[in-house]
Amino acid sequence: MEPNQLTLRPLTGRHEIDLFNQLPYVLNEELADDLAHGRRRPEWMWVALRDGRLLARAAWWSRPGGDTPFLLDLLDIDDSLPGPDRVAIGERLLHTAMAATLPHGIRPPEYSRLVPPEWRESTATRHVVQDRMKILERAGARLFVERLRLEWRPETPVPEPSGRLLFRPVQEAEELLTLMTLVLDGTLDAHSRDDLTRMSPRETAAGHYEQELVRYTSPRDWWRIATLPGGEPVGFVVPAHNTYHAIIAYIAVLPRHRGKGYIDDLLAGGTRVLAEQNVPRIRASTDLGNTPMANAFRRAGYVNFGREINMTWS
């Protein structure tokens, strides 16, 4: 197949969503709603066509009202094509789409790919993931981190309170920001560690708070600070809803209280808040290398149902 036979273009409108969804991916069922609510735009959704056949696609996502793409979360190719053609077509599409879509002179948004939990063990699945990573690498991206995707389901018992900690709502933003700053000391989270190479702990905490936590429309009185019986804070947990799912948005133990198993109490507390809302599931994620957090989710009955590949540009 000759690359110059390709038509590379963005969608002309929402009516082309069926064309875009001709390639399978777990996010397909969310795309129409994303378009309707401004989390995606047709001009951010690109296709590679040959004789009307969809061979590749790429799309960015943003928070509602965002003027620029925030995340590249769709890059798919027709996996029935020969290997060299797959990568060449995907590379050309991504190069063209990035040049036309992204503001000049800024670092491209992070790439996210949702994959099965044991994606390396299946030859077919491994090739699918590696082909897309190869396209990103040729565009200048590199692997940043692999994350576990976790889920609590209603049939799973909610851990009872241990009685070691007391829970209360967050009283004011400054209180939570102070704790968020403190827990960055010794953090195992790759994104936080990367932010700390460019910003102070306070700036890193404020950025997470302003860009993530305050954007959730779920009640802020779900957010909990855990204390010892005498009132000393031990940590906090932020249960929330991110438009798609109920989530554990943030959870952490203060450095001086780590190693005592309090993470289990915090996770149980946050899970109880969301379970009381009768949600169909609770989602969470943590870095593959954050073994203590992954083990805490496992003890609380969360199932590892997938992984996420994150790639970034330097």
Q: In words, what does this structure look like?
A:
The chain is α+β, with helices and mostly antiparallel strands. The protein has two domains: 3-139, 3-Layer(aba) Sandwich (Aminopeptidase); 166-313, 3-Layer(aba) Sandwich (Aminopeptidase), CATH 3.40.630. Helices cover 32% and strands 27% of the residues. It has helices at residues 17-20, 28-36, 83-101, 123-138, 173-182, 190-196, 201-211, 262-275, 291-299; strands at 7-10, 45-50, 53-61, 71-77, 110-115, 141-152, 166-169, 224-227, 233-241, 246-253, 282-287, 303-313. A twelve-stranded mixed beta sheet has the order 1-2-3-4-5-12-6-11-10-9-8-7, with helices on both faces. α3 (83-101) links the parallel β4 (71-77) and β5 (110-115). It is elongated. The mean pLDDT is 95.
* The CATH fourth-level homologous superfamily of the largest domain: Gcn5-related N-acetyltransferase (GNAT)
> What structural class is derived from the secondary structure elements?
alpha+beta
How far is the first residue's CA from the last residue's CA? 33 Å
The major β-sheet equals: 12 strands, mixed
The best one-word shape is elongated
